[in-house]
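== Folding task for one protein ==

=== Format: two labelled lines per protein ===

==== Paired sequence and structure tokens ====
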Amino acid sequence: MNSQEYKQFYDDVGTLNGWDFSQVRCISEGTSWNFFDQVSKVCNTSDIVLDVGTGGGESLISIAPGAAFLIGIDLSHAMIQTAKQNLYSSSTRNVRFMQMDSEQLQFPPGLFNLISCKHAPFRASEVARVLTDDGIFLTQQVRECDKSNLAAAFGRGQFANQDGTLKERYITELDQAGFRQIEYVEYDAAEYYEREEDLIFLLKHTPIIPHFGQDDEDFRILQQFIEDHRTEQGIRTNAARFMMIARK
């Protein structure tokens, strides 16, 4: 998908189900970190925090006691409405949510001590602009080799580039934006979906297989995939991620 198609897909899914994957039965083996645990580790109680691509805001709300004030932004209007509902249902008072494009952050320079970004696009120059001089930026992104056996089975996937392409691009952009220290880690974990409907939900509500289900042939391919990759733990695929911690 091009950028505009992805944005439309993202907003459509946000409107449909709020990007709520809580009912999907899936286990992972081999993950090396929990992203928001990492965010919490570098967050101080005096920090002002920005979360880019906040989704329903649950993760940001969960770490709110460890910061002075937190703002979550998301491209999807539907997601921000969900995040505001989640905030209203909580006792949290130091969090706000706003609809905003991460490529044009509508904040003054040097406002945030810490910025997080999980599975969302960002512009390194904008991140650097709104960070304090000693600020920290953390991002977790999906690697190009994610769900590799699904992409092979369908003959198409969400990534056209080789594994490591996005990593190199972001490292270059962060370096050019003035970040003085960039740490990088990655993992490629096994992922098991318990039921067929869990895997179908994933494919219909993510861009892993572009335009999944528009052709009846997709369901034939999926059934063969399930037969080929079913194990005692579930239907096996992989979850490949990388994380960067950049200090300004």
